[in-house]
Design goal:
This protein is of the alpha+beta class. It has five helices and six strands. The radius of gyration is 20 Å and the shape is elongated. The relative contact order is 0.12. Monomer. Homodimer; disulfide-linked.
Length: 178
């Protein structure tokens, strides 16, 4: 309890966040158009399990490889609506309304639309401080039973693990907590 922790004089961080904070931030980012990201194969690290080429994206759209053999692709991610968040004692819960539009990049740099996925996801996020570093876990809930969407969901989780948490650590905790 709080009085016992104060009596023990242990270093402690108390953080209180209401739903107003994440929802206001989501509104500001969405209104400013900041919830958009274009991803091409040159942005992804080589260790990423899926490269943005028609050959590897054929799992999501089998006819893609037939029509455009082994060409580069771009993925345009965006929020269709403002994300909604709710604070609960155990975690921050949110609903994301996204879209992922894939394009094939032809040799003359023309972009041909390949497919569009509207992805609405319920997420649960928990922040912890471990080893003087800010850590986070995100869990997607209410996923789709469609196998192709499950594969994409898994890739999004890997992307968050490879990019999201390290970015949060460097952006919001650039120096170890003393």
């Amino acid at each position: 309890s709080l009085p016992e922790a104060l009596a023990a004089r242990e270093p402690m961080l108390l953080l209180a966040v209401t739903e107003f904070v994440p929802n206001s931030a989501a509104f500001a980012y969405f209104t400013a158009g900041a919830l958009r990201r274009n991803i091409s194969s040159d942005v992804l690290p080589r260790r990423f399990p899926l490269q943005l080429r028609t050959k590897s994206m054929g799992a999501f759209s089998p006819q893609l490889q037939e029509h455009y053999p082994d060409l580069p692709m771009e993925l345009h991610l965006s929020a269709r609506r403002q994300p909604l968040f709710s604070c609960r004692p155990d975690a921050l819960h949110g609903t994301l309304f996204g879209s992922a539009e894939a394009f094939v990049v032809l040799p003359n740099a023309t972009r041909v639309p390949a497919f569009l996925l509207n992805i609405d996801a319920n997420v649960t996020g928990k922040l912890t401080i471990t080893g003087h570093r800010l850590r986070g876990t995100v869990k997607l809930t209410g996923g789709s039973p469609v196998p192709q969407v499950k594969k994409l969901e898994t890739l999004l989780k890997i992307g968050l693990w490879l990019f999201g948490v390290p970015w949060a650590n460097s952006e919001y905790c650039p120096h170890p907590v003393p």
